[in-house]
Predict the structure.
Amino acid sequence: MRVFVTGASGWIGSAVVPELLEAGHQVIGLARSDASAAALTDAGVEVQRGSLDDLDQLRAAADASDGVIHLAFKHDLAFSGDFQGAADADRRAVETIGEALAGSDRPLMIASGLLGVAPGQVATEQDGHGSHAAGAAFGGGPQARWETAEFTLSLASQGVRSSIVRLPPTNHGDGDNGFIATLIGIAREKGVSGYIGDGANRWPAVHRLDSARLFRLGLEKAPAGSTLHPVADEGVPVRDIAEVIGRHLEVPVVSVAPENAAEHFTWMGGFLGLDAPASSRLTRELLGWEPTQPGLIADLDEGHYFQQAVTV
Ligand SMILES: NC(=O)c1ccc[n+]([C@@H]2O[C@H](COP(=O)([O-])OP(=O)(O)OC[C@H]3O[C@@H](n4cnc5c(N)ncnc54)[C@H](OP(=O)(O)O)[C@@H]3O)[C@@H](O)[C@H]2O)c1
């Protein structure tokens, strides 16, 4: 398949690309900078220069493809305080790609998230649809992003083989610079490895090589309108994560009171206390996907997360 991938140069994308190439697909990657274009070329990807805001280019690239995997997101904008702006750009991009693919039965997969889908319960692929509850806990931008995921599923009725991949908050692995690396950076800076309250709240997790394989399987065979969960660890208590970090950094493991979470954990304070276990049973049954990489705690124990100083 000739696959157009946005965000091909990112953390998830740079695992999805070799997964696709090794399976014999051809990849065209969107690149907004010379550096990203060079990285994609080195990875064996044909480069489509442009940004998420270049809607005509997105449309043309989607039109010329056999399917699209949309992973780009303006994290730089979102994390500088304009999540709504990032979510709005994402919606416009998905609408544009959806228009290009309408009536063709070609696949469109987008990255979505698991946090907030069914707080305090084990979220299944069937949860978080048809109401505004999923993103509402976090305010406007995340709500808009959740609506974009639901919009993507609705494209199934317009002849798009659309699916959403609800990624766990941590897609861990060597080179990760996301939530877990940030948590380690905070522990280094504060001299303690913290969790919120009793730390019993659970986070789902997956190794990024396993999530990349799910994107490939979904591209090849997910039915239109599928919700996919690349979940390997159903729910790792955050206290267990803090304990591994404390052991590797040789710092005390401490509880942080919920009222002090924002000060201690900065922007992660709003996420770290969420209880968000999730199941992937239906995804495994649908696609035959099984994770093969180390779980989160085992991956942390491999030591690569602790070999370099990470600052926040
Ligand atoms: N990583 C996780 O654990 C996780 C968890 C839940 C959901 N997700 C979602 O999964 C998707 C991929 O995440 P990721 O971790 O791979 O993110 P990432 O490492 O930050 O990569 C983001 C990608 O988007 C591209 N991009 C950003 N702004 C762009 C713009 N204006 N125009 C074109 N491309 C642009 C980046 O290009 P450059 O290379 O030029 O920067 C990069 O390729 C995102 O939607 C993310 O929110 C990720």
Summary: DSSP finds 13 helices and twelve strands in the chain. The mean pLDDT is 94. The first helix runs from residue 13 to 22.
